[in-house]
Amino acid sequence: MEVLIEQEIALHRYEIRQDLNEVARLLHSSFKEVGRSGRSFDYSSILGMMQSEEPSNGHIHSQDFECILLEPSVQLLLYKSAWVSEAGEVSAFTKRSSIWVFTGQGWQMKYHQGTPCEKFELL
């Protein structure tokens, strides 16, 4: 579970999202996402979105990770996240789920979904 959490958190970082090699290592080529906005993305569109991002002084806080074994090579990672601005303001409270698959070379995210949720206390 720790490697999945580390890889999930890595994808929150601007530097990783700008590194095409890292993104290709972490995201499966058939990746799909339903964002917290309700918009859908595939591998190609998420790459384009990441490449057009601007750096920010805020960060994504994540907590309450839970990993559910679906198959020996398939894991469901659940957690909560929130956006923390440079001034410390907290917003965009979200429940998240990611499906990770083991490809033989490493774990890659194949699906991700974010759903808005009620405020929660940051740990």
TrEMBL record:
Domain DUF4440: from-to ranges: 5-109
SUPFAM superfamilies, per the entry: NTF2-like
InterPro entries found in the cross-reference section: DUF4440, NTF2-like_dom_sf
Pfam families: DUF4440 (PF14534)
Protein name: DUF4440 domain-containing protein
